């Protein structure tokens, strides 16, 4: 029976990181262990050997790999949950049910998009692309919605487990819209916000994730994290309706036809019961589409080992994939700054004097270690 896999945030404490082998406690040690790990022969413990590339690794990446690109992670030193204890992400049902919740979401996202749009993949993403070209990697599964993997190595098979922010999807007709086009529409519908955004960009207030520094540069946020735009509270924020639903009334779940109304400028109006665009990501409380879930499982099953980069596996969907790999007898390597949820389950029976052939666990920066691993293997 198909069981939906729902994305749920985890904010509990994490254990201190394990280090395996012992020599992996430095950048050089972690590099050499990971190089051994990637070039080892297929593990004799592997099960289900009816297909797949057993000497290749599947890489599973999380927010930690994008920190060197200037994005915030969740639990790192400057992570969202660390900097803002009361941070609570929007849930799917809230977004779908509430016009107020959507206004607030899009107002904040309007200000945040330019930083993400400007950010670029870093040395870790490019090293993964080069390792894949050399045959060490069969595919990449990412929890990130920043599109950095596809920008850095479009030649590698990539499963974007939680979708991507580069497009929006209509919850009624499922048509996609590029985010750039949507951003322009938001600017047109919210001129005061557009002016404010320009000011923020010119002061550099959006170049930092640090709330204190942002405030210093003129970006004020309320205790609940809302941007404070002079003369333009988020309750007046407007967002466009789905253009496809505007021309062709979509069919709703109950079989009836939806209707979409806009104001004179094209902003979605509360008279509507359809035409709602959402970021094309799996929001918290939303199920991962079954075809994505299956693609991720197939990517695990087609590889002979797994390397987890920049993820504390706090999200159940990611932890489950690591567990699947472990149950298949795949050697596991983890490169993540800080602890990983329930990691002792993967490394309990590993000899700490092992050279890195069967397991690696290091707490070093990926943007330094992965390019060094690549060099080591050349
Ligand atoms: Zn639509």
From TrEMBL:
<dbReference type="Pfam" id="PF02146">
    <property type="entry name" value="SIR2"/>
</dbReference>
<dbReference type="GO" id="GO:0046872">
    <property type="term" value="F:metal ion binding"/>
</dbReference>
<dbReference type="GO" id="GO:0016740">
    <property type="term" value="F:transferase activity"/>
</dbReference>
<dbReference type="InterPro" id="IPR003000">
    <property type="entry name" value="Sirtuin"/>
</dbReference>
<feature type="binding site">
    <location>
        <position position="170"/>
    </location>
    <ligand>
        <name>Zn(2+)</name>
    </ligand>
</feature>
<keyword id="KW-0479">Metal-binding</keyword>
<feature type="binding site">
    <location>
        <position position="173"/>
    </location>
    <ligand>
        <name>Zn(2+)</name>
    </ligand>
</feature>
<dbReference type="GO" id="GO:0070403">
    <property type="term" value="F:NAD+ binding"/>
</dbReference>
<feature type="domain" description="Deacetylase sirtuin-type">
    <location>
        <begin position="35"/>
        <end position="378"/>
    </location>
</feature>
<comment type="similarity">
    <text>Belongs to the sirtuin family. Class I subfamily.</text>
</comment>
<keyword id="KW-0862">Zinc</keyword>
<dbReference type="InterPro" id="IPR026591">
    <property type="entry name" value="Sirtuin_cat_small_dom_sf"/>
</dbReference>
<dbReference type="InterPro" id="IPR026590">
    <property type="entry name" value="Ssirtuin_cat_dom"/>
</dbReference>
<protein>
    <recommendedName>
        <fullName>Deacetylase sirtuin-type domain-containing protein</fullName>
    </recommendedName>
</protein>
<keyword id="KW-0808">Transferase</keyword>
<keyword id="KW-0520">NAD</keyword>
<feature type="active site" description="Proton acceptor">
    <location>
        <position position="162"/>
    </location>
</feature>
<feature type="binding site">
    <location>
        <position position="245"/>
    </location>
    <ligand>
        <name>Zn(2+)</name>
    </ligand>
</feature>
<dbReference type="InterPro" id="IPR029035">
    <property type="entry name" value="DHS-like_NAD/FAD-binding_dom"/>
</dbReference>
<feature type="binding site">
    <location>
        <position position="242"/>
    </location>
    <ligand>
        <name>Zn(2+)</name>
    </ligand>
</feature>
């Amino acid at each position: 029976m198909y069981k939906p896999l729902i994305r749920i945030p985890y904010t509990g404490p994490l254990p201190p990181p394990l280090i395996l082998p012992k020599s992996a406690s430095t950048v050089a040690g972690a590099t050499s262990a990971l190089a051994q790990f990637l070039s080892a022969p297929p593990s004799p413990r592997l099960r289900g050997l009816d297909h797949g590339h057993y000497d290749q690794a599947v890489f599973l990446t999380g927010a930690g790999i994008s920190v060197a690109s200037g994005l915030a992670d969740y639990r790192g030193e400057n992570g969202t949950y660390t900097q803002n204890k009361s941070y609570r992400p929007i849930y799917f049902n809230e977004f779908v049910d509430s016009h107020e919740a959507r206004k607030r979401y899009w107002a904040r996202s309007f200000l945040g998009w330019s930083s993400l749009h400007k950010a670029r993949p870093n040395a870790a993403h490019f090293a993964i692309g080069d390792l894949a070209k050399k045959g060490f990697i069969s595919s990449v599964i990412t929890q990130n919605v920043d599109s950095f993997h596809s920008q850095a190595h479009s030649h590698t098979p990539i499963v974007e487990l939680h979708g991507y922010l580069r497009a929006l999807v209509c919850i009624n007709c499922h048509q996609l819209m590029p985010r750039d086009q949507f951003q322009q529409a938001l600017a047109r519908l919210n001129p005061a916000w557009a002016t404010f955004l320009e000011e923020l960009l010119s002061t550099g207030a959006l170049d930092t994730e640090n709330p204190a520094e942002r405030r210093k540069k003129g970006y004020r946020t309320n205790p609940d994290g809302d941007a404070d735009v002079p003369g333009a509270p988020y309750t007046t924020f407007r967002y466009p309706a789905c253009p496809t639903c505007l021309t062709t009334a979509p069919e709703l779940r109950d079989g009836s036809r939806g209707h979409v109304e806009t104001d004179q400028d094209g902003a979605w109006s509360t008279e509507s019961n359809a035409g709602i665009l959402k970021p094309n990501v799996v929001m918290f409380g939303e199920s991962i589409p079954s075809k994505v879930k299956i693609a991720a499982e197939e990517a695990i099953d087609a590889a002979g080992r797994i390397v987890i980069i920049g993820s504390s596996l706090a999200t159940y969907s990611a932890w489950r994939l690591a567990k699947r790999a472990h149950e298949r007898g795949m050697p596991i390597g983890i490169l993540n700054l800080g602890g990983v949820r329930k990691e002792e389950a993967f490394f309990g029976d590993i000899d700490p004097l092992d050279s890195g052939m069967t397991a690696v666990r290091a707490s070093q920066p990926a943007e330094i270690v992965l390019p060094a691993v690549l060099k080591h293997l050349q």
